Amino acid sequence: MHPTRAPVPLVSLFLVFFRVGLFSFGGGLSGWIYREVVTLRGWMSDDDFFSGLALSQILPGANVTNLSVYIGQRLRGPVGSVCALTGLVIGPFFAVIALATAYAQIAAMPWIQDAMTGAAAAAIGLLLVVALKGAYSASRRLVPFLILMATFVAVGLLQWPLVPVALGLAPVSIAFAWWKASSDA
Amino acid sequence: MRENVLWSLIVVFVPFSLVSIGGGPSIFAGIQHQSVEVYHWVTAREFVDLFAIARAAPGPGSMLVTLLGWKVAGWTGAIVATLALFIPSSLLCYGVTKMWNHYRGRHWHTALESGLAPIGAGLILAGVFAVFRIAGAGILSWAVAGVAAAILAWRPTLNPLILLAGGAAAFAIWHGMVPL
Predict the structure, then answer these.
(1) Does residue B143 sit within a domain?
(2) B48–chain A Cβ distance below 8 A for any pair
(3) What is the mean pLDDT of residues A104-130?
(4) ipTM confidence
């Protein structure tokens, strides 16, 4: 895959996803994964990540578990997928049960819920950075930028179902990329 | 009896795994129907509590099924339910990903990849809005998210835990001073 680069150690792969899984509150998981895998470690490129993310969303299953399978496979094959997925899920598995056990006590302390809402809001900030990063890299060309905006408006603002929107826009976007690559070559 | 319960968990969650297109939210209604009305694993009230717990806890929101399994059959139930929901979709994803990466470098693959990238980025942007809408977020949530994003854009390598702690503190202090 990367003949010039040493393979990513399986332990690192596991630990990165373990950390992401355990500390990601409120749905900012793709943002964390982007930060760990692309920004900090340079394990894959922007295009590699975002196209994997689109695949993860189109396929059935939780987006982040699919994304971890994708990244694990890309970096280390089947064992990589197992490491990334296990790392991602094992922390939350225990955390969610611990939280359920303590739920009655926690419900009596409203400030804890406030604090968790606050942490979740900050996590969305993380996701926002990734979204803007993707928007920035798409905005260097007009058509990809329009595709991005169309996706956002249809799914985010109009609340159209995700899969038909993605499948409808994909042929246009891919045809443009094909044409662009041919005319650049 | 216990085996029957574990078997029911598998029978219910495996199909949900394979139809959960677009992630967890697309199947929550169906899971509620099965576990409250069909199998009577939990009451409607308990389901809402478990849903809230799964959302508050770290990890994917679909860890809700872990809690359902745990409620019904303890640790074994939790493990069986989690595997039933995550393994089928992950195997499918693995197959697609393997094919996808196998053809890396081909002209059409490059076109597919750069064609899908803006859609992935647009979906993330939409996801930011969706999370806020579901949470019924107020102005403070947006402010915290905006400040966190600005700090991260300025210092990309900053540990996000610091931001999470800051967001948590901002909310706790705000609500402490301004009673709802």
Answers:
(1) no
(2) no
(3) 78
(4) 0.78
